[in-house]
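Chain A, query sequence.
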Amino acid sequence: MDKETKREIILDNYQNPTNRGLVEDATYKKANTRSSSCIDNIDLMMKIEDGKVVDACFDGEACAICTSSTSIIVKSLIGKSVDEAKNIIKNYQNMINEEDYDPEVLGELNAFDEIYMQPARKNCALLSSKSAVRILDEVGK
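Chain A, predicted structure.
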């Protein structure tokens, strides 16, 4: 993916985030992740039925990297089994942390494959994935 495409994906998901806005529904699991070093504060909600992420949404105050990565994570997880969702998140976190990962499972999340070059932005890119892990692990119990 070329730099311009990455930029367009990140900007589009920042300006027009997918499923932004929380729901009042007790069947959704909710997790909050807040950065200790910047403004990023994201609530992530997922509805999981029969081992599948049937819906996800988020809200909060965050920078462009955090907002866009959350938007793409939400899109990437909807419709996936819990195991598939965990695999996507694991590969995404590995990519951000410069560890082995499979780019084939990440789709638009590959737009963040060079974020490691900006160490201060790594936490922004990882914030919502931490909430996703907490929710997915809770469901797996």
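The first strand starts at residue 28 and ends at 34. The mean pLDDT is 95.
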